[in-house]
Amino acid sequence: MIAENHALREKLAQATDQLDKAQVKSEATAACIQQDSTENKGNDAHSFAVMRQLLRSYRELTAINLSVVEDEDTENALNLECIAFNKQTKAAVKFELVIPENKDEEIEYLPTANTHLLPDYLQDEICFAQSEAPVFMHKVFSALYRPAVAQSQC
């Protein structure tokens, strides 16, 4: 009986030791996760600030304001709401672009406001190759920056 008690005490001591080690390991893991979470929050905040500054600079350089539109129907595509504006005349047009991840697929253009400022062919929905995006934007800005006399004739 004494031998059994001694054996049980030994097993209890081993189990307690293993439990203590597991708890220390668990606490260390929790501390690492907390530290990673804190570091990621800092990185996320920094990334967000950099992204906001980048978008603000892009708006100033290009006279176009971009915002992402959440749309479940446009999976595997970026859906952007765009406002292109002429800083001198304050004229602006609003449209959406659906840009697929696959570079072989076409961009969808959907005009939404002030389409009368645009040429006839840009007043309706169109699709165009992604490689033609710079030409498309040039046409939008050409319409916005053409002389006021030409705009009134549209």
Describe it for me?
By secondary structure, the chain is α+β, with helices and mostly antiparallel strands. It folds into two domains: 1-62; 63-152, Aspartate Aminotransferase, domain 1 (Alpha-Beta Complex). The protein is 51% helix and 21% strand. It has helices at 2-62, 133-145, 148-152, and strands at 64-68, 77-85, 92-100, 107-113, 126-128. Strands 1-2-3-4-5 form a five-stranded antiparallel sheet. The longest helix is centred in the N-terminal third of the chain and has 61 residues, at 2-62. It is elongated, with a radius of gyration of 30 Å. The mean pLDDT is 77.
List the defining traits of the structure above.
5 strands; alpha+beta; Aspartate Aminotransferase, domain 1; 2 domains; 154 residues
Q: Topology, pairings included?
A:
Elements: H1 2-62, E1 64-68, E2 77-85, E3 92-100, E4 107-113, E5 126-128, H2 133-145, H3 148-152
Antiparallel strand pairs: 1-2, 2-3, 3-4, 4-5
Number of helices: 3
% residues in beta strands: 15-25%
The residue fraction in helices comes out at 40-55%
Q: What's the average pLDDT?
A: 77
Brief digest:
The protein is an alpha+beta fold and about 150 residues long. It has helices at about 1-60, 135-145, 150, and strands spanning about 65-70, 75-85, 90-100, 105-115, 125-130. The chain is built from 3 helices and 5 strands, in the order αβββββαα.
